[in-house]
Amino acid sequence: MGYPDLCHVNQSQTSFSAHCFAGLAKPMGLVEGPGGLGQGGAAATLGEDSRESEGRYEDYGYNAQLSDRISLDRNIPDYRPKKCKQLTYSDDLPQISVVFIFVNEALSVILRSVHSVVNHTPAHLLKEIILVDDNSDSVELKFNLDHYVNKRYPGLVKIVRNSKREGLIRARIHGWNAATAPVVGFFDAHVEFNTGWAEPILTRVKEDHTRIILPAIDNIKYNTFEVQQYANAAHGYNWGLWCMYIIPPQDWLDKGDETAPIRTPAMIGCSFVVDREYFGEIGLLDPGMEVYGGENIELGMRVWQCGGSMEVLPCARVAHIERTKKPYNNDIDYYAKRNALRAAEVWMDEFKSHVYMAWNIPMNNPGVDFGDVSERVALRKKMNCKNFRWYLEHVYPEMRIYNNTITYGEVRNSKASGYCLDQGSEEDDRAILYPCHGMSSQVSVFSFFSNGPIISRDTGRCLEVEMSKDANFGLRLVVQRCSGQKWVIRNWIKHPRH
């Protein structure tokens, strides 16, 4: 049964009468309008009679029952640097299409994302909102969502539904295909926008269409929905291509201007804004990648190497829920590994070995099918992109390089079949022998030749294995006069010297 059509509005309106609130939100158990729990970004709690929240944490990775009680229109603290509030912007800025990707989110969280962007974006700049449903299972994300947005924001919100689960990467490409504004913003569907977020971003894109702009991220606590300020940061990554926040570059710190754009090597991935046409020209996100993980790093490498740039804007802030459970949880490590190798093979030249080292897999026959990268290699050649060494020197000089590594892998002794050199307890930090398992504690980096002894430069003695009833597994490591024992690196990989 549908809900009564109590209000007709145009898309430029951002406030509605009480009977409209009741007509749309209340039958779904949701709250609109000012006031109520969590107002101003304050922490909120439910009464002790609430018993459902534990199960819904498991479903969503945040307190969905509490979210349902917080107004879709709540305000959050303005965490912009003070100087941002004094800046003025041209009236002649490009319009933006805002794309939200979701799969099995709580309806109230999705709708709060929608309300938030409408309430905090000038109507003449917001051309459309595109909701990409990556084949959700939830019934309320079908009829209820369609009915609500069509009545509440007629003509403003489009819904794109994937007929099968595509993953975040390809879902974003579907959103790009549906977008019609000259600028497109991609966001997770569990965010809240701050005052004045759009104008500084659109200004930077208008000045240079090859810039990809990242709003500064604040945090929405998954259990109380309190909004917490995060410090200004750039977005970096480790050699496994896992993203992380890093200190802004020294030249930004030296300026002493908190409003200045922050050069960033890559992006965390929950939100970014780009010129629509330029994004197509540089190859969108890699459609050969699966689910998510690594695509955000690959985009940063590609943009910088191919003549563009990426920056964080402290004056544009978006708050984001860091969920305790991800919607694509199954085998996410595998997909992150697969996508990382794909990026490494296309963009990282001789430094790709660092990625294989980080994931503890051999470069020859790695056991991971990362697919055909020929089209991405052709794209790089067509765009005449710079090499990865240039990127490390000019964009990510903070990244530590392991160019002097000769070999890496599991280290086994000829006298102890099936046992590997491993890290002992943290208390004494001694090396031990342990059944080989291939995890990171057994990935060793040594400057010795495979199939030979490990010799102490100080004493000339060798690291060897001897039988001992008192030791774990009856084996212990000793430094003694060399007896001819040999150590072999299993699946060792030669790393190029420079």
From TrEMBL:
Localization (cell): Golgi apparatus membrane
Pathway membership, UniProt: Protein modification; protein glycosylation
GO function term, MF aspect, one: metal ion binding
A GO biological-process term: protein O-linked glycosylation
GO CC terms in record: Golgi membrane
Keywords: Disulfide bond, Glycoprotein, Glycosyltransferase, Golgi apparatus, Lectin, Manganese, Membrane, Metal-binding, Signal-anchor, Transferase, Transmembrane, Transmembrane helix
E.C. no: 2.4.1.-
Annotated Pfam families: Glycos_transf_2, Ricin_B_lectin
Record membrane topology: Single-pass type II membrane protein
Domain Glycosyltransferase 2-like intervals: 97-281
Residues covered by the Ricin B lectin domain: 408-490
Cofactor(s) required for function per UniProt: Mn(2+)
Signal peptide positions on this chain: none
Enzyme class of the recorded protein, top EC level: transferase
Family: Belongs to the glycosyltransferase 2 family. GalNAc-T subfamily.
Entry protein name: Polypeptide N-acetylgalactosaminyltransferase
